[in-house]
Amino acid sequence: MNFFIAAVRRDLLLALRRRSDIVNPLAFFLMVAVMFPLAVSPESKFLAQVAPGVIWVAALLACLLSADGIFRSDFDDGSLEQMLVSPQPLVLIVLAKVLSHWIISGFCLALMSPLLAMMLFLPSEGLGALVLSLLLGTPTLSLLGAIGAGLTVGLRKGGILISLLILPLYIPVLIFGAGTVQAAAMGLPIAGYLALLGALLVLSMMLAPFAIAAALKISVRG
Amino acid sequence: MLEVKNLFCERDERVLFSHLSFGISAGEVVQIEGQNGSGKTTLLRILCGLNESYQGELFWQQKEIAEVRDDYFSQMLYVGHLAGVKSTLTAEENLAWMQQLDPALDKVSIAEALKNVGLYGFEDVPCYTLSAGQQRRVGLARLYLSTAPLWILDEPFTALDKKGVAEKEALLAQHVFNGGSVILTTHHDLNVPGHTVRRINLNEVARS
Amino acid sequence: MKIKLPQWFYQLASPRWFYEFSGKLLPWFAIAAFVLLITGSVWGLAFAPEDYQQGNSFRIIYVHVPASILAQSCYMLMAIAGAIGLIWKMKMAHIVAKSCATFGASIAVMSLATGAIWGKPTWGAWWVWDARLTAMLVLFFLYVGVIALHSAFENTQSADKASAVLSLVGLVNIPIIKYSVEWWNTLHQGATFKVTEKPAMPPEMWIPLLIMVLGFYCFFAVILMQRARIEVLQREKKASWVQEIIQQSL
Amino acid sequence: MGHFATFADFLQMGKHGLYVWLSYGLAFAIFAYNIVSVALAKRQFFNKAKRQARREQSES
Lengths: 222, 208, 250, 60
Prior knowledge:
The structure holds four protein chains of four kinds. By secondary structure, chain C is mainly alpha-helical. Chain C has helices spanning 7-13, 15-47, 61-88, 91-123, 131-152, 156-188, 203-235, 240-249.
């Protein structure tokens, strides 16, 4: 457990030293949400209708883009090799890295989402559901994204490939996440949606770390 | 301690080595020789489980390595081409993380290890302000901390000056004297005081 | 992880044995595929009765449904072969998995395209966000991902292992994706006309369908074996038995 | 002609002829693509092997 906390602390410290890791996904999130009214229509009624979907898609893309970097610097400077030859379980290291990635991407996105909700005229009933659904859904996105990151970390053209691999896997989270917000905005109960998002999170927490560890071993060992 | 039996490895349809067998016991230094591209790095990576595209068997304390992985990893120290040093962290933070990763690193304090590699006073500077040689030394400070009996070192002396090399050689000698063993590759003429170095030439192995 | 496997499994694991064995099987499968596909199409096109609601456009079912079923089982086979390759380090399994990927993608395209064509007369639009079609589209994306990942690696072994991991992740996800898409579909659309959930079909309708499904599977077996054989030759081209085959072909 | 009275009827398929024949044509095209691509890959492999054999012969 001490080791797990130390590993999370190290990654958060690294992110804090390089502010862009934290700021870039947030800026991207905001910009996508700004593009949308410009491209389609600034009319408040229309925007209120599509806001849940737009915010969720923007959050999903922001998570995906930052996922590419989860293992990249560790791979480049040899830290990943050291993790593989250490007696510490790789699954634990992987979980720590995913957790810290979530804190700097998904968690911050969830905190920032009310701002976007306001800009896109999301009905106030949907606000709590938006934050909750993002808090429950983005960890799954981080876990799945890390699988793609692990598989492509040794490749030169990682960036676009990872979206090809991972976006299809994001679909269930997107459907239930945006569904939560839509239901809340219409005044419907959301407990069922949240339970589904939670179930997805539990399932991916149980399986994804092993897939990520296997992917990293393949990327490093060749 | 470590035994290699009948190792075969090819890369890009070229045989790097075949029928390679050797063992290393406590108190031994083995230097892997060979031209560039003869597979020295590949061999070391196979030995520490970072390359799986080989045929043959590896034994650690008479047991197959795959079965005693955790035990093996906790008694083996690997320093590769890449130092595994994060440039945005300070030397001290880097070593603290390495200690977390490898519980066998605890012989002396981090401050003392950094002093030993001549980085006294550089503990709390981010590593990107250090020179290449200094960064390399941060990675090598691990050797002063390590209690692992087996060291696997890939070109440990690159980017070091003469004095640094001599110091590292003395460190190797002490490690071997205490019953440890070392497998390494280097372009230097290795001189470990008080010990003979066993050499394995990969070019000769490939031909056989 | 050390499970003892039967002898034939290890034989199958030998590329040479596979090459020789599949060579004997191939003509039979090819004949079966040809006969079944011709019989099925003629029966389906000319002899089966028309549907009382959809008229003759119903006849598309005889290519659309077999393609959809095959696209899914092909993915399953790919993922299972990948798992076998990962666990037992079996060369042949990876070769089969790789051969599945390209074929599966093409058959998913067939399912999507015939589904879209069928959609035009039944729903009045080329594309409808129907749950089955959407799920098939996602399956196609999964295939594309596996193919793209495999081709991104220079080293064949890493490529095999990485795509095996990805296809296993996809296999776990397919039921979840299907469930979520169906659920999303019922949420957004009223009861659309469900093509495949109809009261029991009369035998004149489902017998040709069955024949077509069998024909598709036989064709799959033919293409899979052919692709795997070429892959075997490529990967083993330094082996003496492959050299002999090349010499004979000169 | 089984279900249909005349061959023209068969081609027309009520008013759905275009869709039915389009999907069968497409299915056939994809089948053909698979067969042709396999055959091409096979020929490519043997051609390459032959060229290599010739190269080795001229070298020795």
